[in-house]
Amino acid sequence: MQAHERPGGDPPDDTAPDADALAARVRELERELEALAQGNGHLLNLLDATAIATVFLDRELRVVRYTPAACALFRFIPGDLGRPLSDLATPLRYPGLMDDARRVLKQLGVVEREVEAGAGLWYLARVLPHRTGEGQVAGVVLTFVDVSELRLAQRALRDSEARFGAIVNQAAVGVLQADEQGRIFFVNRHYARLLGYDEGELVGRPLLELVHPEDRHASAERIQQLMRDRHPFQLEKRCLRKDGTVLWMHNSAGLLEGGDDDGVRSLVVVSTDISERRRAEDALRGSEERLRMILENAVEYAIFSTDLQGRITGWNTGAQRVLGYDEPEVVGRFADLLFTDEDRAAGAPRLELQAALREGHAIDDRWHVRKDGSRFWASGVLMPMRGPEGLVGFVKILRDQSQQRAAQQALEAANRSKDRFLAVLSHELRNPLAAIHAAGMTLAEPELPPHERSRAADIVRRQAQTMKLLLDDLLDVSSLRLGRMNLRKRWVPLRLLVDAALETVRHALEGAAHALEVGLPGSDVQVFVDPVRMSQVLSNLLTNAAKYTPDGGRIGLDVRVEGGDVVFAVRDNGIGMEAGLVESMFEMFAQRPSEQRPGAGGLGIGLALVRSIVELHGGRVSGNSAGPGQGSCFTVTVPIGGLPGEPRPDPEPEPPADGGSTGRARPRVLLVDDNADAVWPIARLLGLRGFDAQVALTGREALAMVVHAPPDALVLDIGMPSPDGYEVARAVRAMPDAQHTKLIAATGWGQPDDVERTRRAGFDAHLVKPLDLDDLVGWLQRLCPTP
Q1: Is residue 774 over pLDDT 90?
Q2: Which DSSP letter does residue 171 get?
Q3: Dist CA 361 CA 340 (whole Å)
Q4: Of 239, 332, 440, 726, which residue is the least packed, with the fewest Cβ within 10 Å?
Q5: Is the pLDDT score of 432 beyond 60?
Q6: Distance (Å, whole) CA 345 – CA 334
Q7: Is 415 helix (H, G, I), strand (E, B) or coil?
Q8: Residues contacting 453, CB < 8 A, separation 6+
């Protein structure tokens, strides 16, 4: 039978199901192949879109595939596929390339090297194994990243900051891919490592989340422009690492187009770490800006540069101010014009250049010369100046240190004076202490004859007075240096001033058997001065004359009136001094050579006090000597009527001279001091002077005694342990029954501020230790008068 065909030429009904299934399977396979081809195309497009030169080799190291960027390195032609890579010529200076490839195939590791490809061209070469989808090693992948720009930046940094020797390290490179919405769907290992992530952590995250907030807007605009115009761009921006730190990256961004069917586009970014370069550039800019500011604003510093021969090439504003030359006047001239003639003759400029080359710098502390010929002391340094090609000259920095040098010399002189003063002070205090100690032991002997006991007591009194004078001088010096010495001027007869001074030095004159001649004006002249201080001036001059005149010498005090001044002249026939030393005797702590006059002592502040006190009176003092062994003469001149326009207050009432007590019981005095050895003798002597004196050794004991029977006067040591004198005074002032009690402060502090403080605390008088018995008795008689 013949088979009959169906209308339309359809196959027989019994074969139709098998044909349909076969056709469907064919179409399915076609779609899978198309998808596979499309995926492979995406990958190939990704590789072709990057600027990284990439070469795929099989296990025999034959070329399987290469990216367009690799053509410049290996000069590939289509016929090179399948050829061994070692047969191809390349400008890469990488002789070990094939050895590295074999090592990677064997060890399945990764090899990275920086290789050169001609002048100025450098690549980061990476050799890593190429695996198939089943995990089999199919060969080797070679990638070459152009790092020439980084190398040039490193060289620029080395040139610009040669002194620091900073070399910018090689930056890492990373690749990522994001969709049109900016969400990452691929990131390579290098990019993830740059930001401190594992590779999988970045997939699915928005790209802009990795960008520093301050750079996100610019990045978003450039990405939008790329999507519109399809023009690749490069951008340097800051990215955020996983730990929050900032990373500067150079980004090359391009658009990867999809196939015609789906039209999917993606963003491909190739990133390089430029943090080191940016930090170096910022540091360089900061360094240059600081240097510019220094040169513009360092008017206190002379900064200039020279060539290798020492000729001036640059000159800042400070150099013009310090040295006096304008820049056009000195450029091209040798810098030795700033040196003194002596230093030039000694070869100092040449030696300085040699030292700077040898040591890296040369300290330059010496005298220099300005344009006007004046000299000044400058402290400076000369340093070699290097450029990209090596040594180009020198730079010198100077600062005028004349005032500092003078201050340093004055400080050194003051230190020497201080050391000398402390040595003298120790000696001068030990002498009276030794006499007091010996006399005290003598007085302790029970069988000591009365006349010897009287002599020992006289030694104690005399030596204690010596120590008091020493301490008074020290207090006066302190007051003068702090500007706190206040004069209490009044009209005083000249004779009283002279008598007070002679009384002070009478013992010294008699002990040395000096002959004293005193000459006074015929009339009873009065002068407007501080009698205490002016008597101190005369007594200091007379004391010096007695010290520096051998025993049995002649000392004279002449007083005369010249116009509106009174002139005091103290002369002696003592050891004298060189004429050039006279003026220096008025300096603090200055002394004549003591070996020329055995026994001459003192702190070396007497004449300094004399000059200061006289100048406070508006006067002047001078001295002269014909030479060693020919005596000295010191002359004091002060205005009779004081300074012009100076107010002349009425004199303060003096404390009564004697202390007769009649018509009532003896005044009751309570002495409060924690030093029993000091307070007991005073109480005993007050008893002999007609007072009922009692002693308390603590503030609490004193308060208990005041509560029981308030005294007429309370003499309080200010510096006792708690409660101190101020606390006791406040407590006494608060007692209703002790309102009549007078308060006298007894303290070692005697500056005007100390006196004012005790006055504000309610004290009626202020006395300085060691207490003078006559002063204390006078104040007690004044404050507690008897009817």
Answers
A1: no
A2: P
A3: 21
A4: 332
A5: yes
A6: 15
A7: helix
A8: 442, 443
C-alpha distances in angstroms, 398 versus 300, 303, 346?
Answer: 9, 6, 20
Average pLDDT over residues 577-595: 62
Give every CB contact of residue 268 below 8 A, 6+ residues apart in sequence: 46, 49, 50, 175, 176, 177, 253, 254, 255, 256
Mean pLDDT calculated for residue range 643-661: 53
**Torsion sign over Cα 716, 721, 723, 724:** positive
CB 562 within 8 A of CB 645: no
HEC assignment per residue over 283-312: HHHHHHHHHHHHHHHCCCEEEEEECCCCEE
Q: What is the mean pLDDT of residues 99-105?
A: 91
- The string of DSSP letters for 623-684 reads EEESSTTS-EEEEEEEETT-STT---PPPPPPPPS-----SSPPPEEEEE-S-HHHHHHHHH
Which residue has 């009432």 as its token pair? 653
What's the CA gap between 316 and 322, in Å, rounded? 10
* Helix axes of 773-783 and 676-688: crossing angle, nearest 10 degrees: 60
Contacts for 339 with CB less than 8 Å, ≥ 6 apart: 348, 349, 366, 368, 369
Terminal Cα-to-Cα distance of the chain (whole angstroms): 180
Mean pLDDT, to the nearest integer, of 329-353? 91
Beta strand pairing call for 515-519 and 632-639: unpaired
The pLDDT value recorded for residue 732 is 92
Structural tokens at position 588: 């603090």
For residue range 444-458, list pLDDT tens digits in order.
Answer: 778 778 887 887 787
What's the pLDDT tens digit per position in 748-763?
787 778 888 999 999 9
Per-residue model confidence (pLDDT) at position 451: 81
Beta-carbon contacts of residue 447 (< 8 Å; ≥ 6 apart) = none
The string over 622-657, giving b where at least 16 C-beta atoms fall within 10 Å of a residue's C-beta and e elsewhere, is ebebeeeeebbbbbbbbbbebeeeeeeeeeeeebee
Structural contact between residues 237 and 247, judged by C-beta atoms closer than 8 angstroms = no
Other beta carbons within 10 angstroms of residue 353's beta carbon come to 20
Instruction: Count CB-CB contacts under 10 A for residue 562.
Output: 9
Please check whether residue 267 is in contact with residue 207, taking contact to mean a CB–CB distance below 8 angstroms.
Answer: yes
- The position carrying tokens 């020493």 is 470
pLDDT digits (tens, 9 = 90+) for 158-181: 766 444 322 222 335 788 889 888
Exposure b/e, 382-397, CB count within 10 A at least 16 = b: bebbeeeeeeebbbbb
DSSP string covering 352-368: HHHHHHHHS-EEEEEEE
The answer to whether residue 517 scores a pLDDT higher than 60 is yes
Tell which residue, 372, 357, 373, 362, has the closest CA to residue 398: 362
pLDDT reading at 631 higher than 90 = no
Q: Quickly state the pLDDT bin for 472 (edges 50, 70, 90).
A: low
The mean predicted confidence, pLDDT, of the chain is 80
Which residues lie across from 123 on neighbouring strands? 115, 146
Q: State residue 446's pLDDT score.
A: 82
Residues in contact with 117: Cβ distance below 8 Å, sequence separation at least 6, in sequence order: 73, 90, 91, 92, 93, 123
Nearest to 659 by CA among 679, 683, 694, 686: 686
CA-CA distance, 625 to 545, in Å (whole number)? 12
Contact partners, residue 658, CB within 8 Å, separation at least 6: 781
Joined tokens for residue 177: 């891919």
Phi, psi (deg, nearest 5) at residue 330: -115, -20
Secondary structure class of 777 (helix, strand, coil): helix
Q: What phi-psi label fits residue 9: left (phi over 0), alpha (psi between -120 and 50 degrees) or beta?
A: left
Q: Which residue has the higher pLDDT, 71 or 644?
A: 71
Residue 558 pLDDT exceeds 90: yes
| CB-based contact 253:266 (threshold 8 Å) | no
Evaluate if pTM is beyond 0.90: no
pLDDT of 693 > 80? The answer is: yes
| DSSP letter (8 states) at residue 782 | H
Distances (CA, A) of 610 to 355, 418, 505: 53, 19, 16
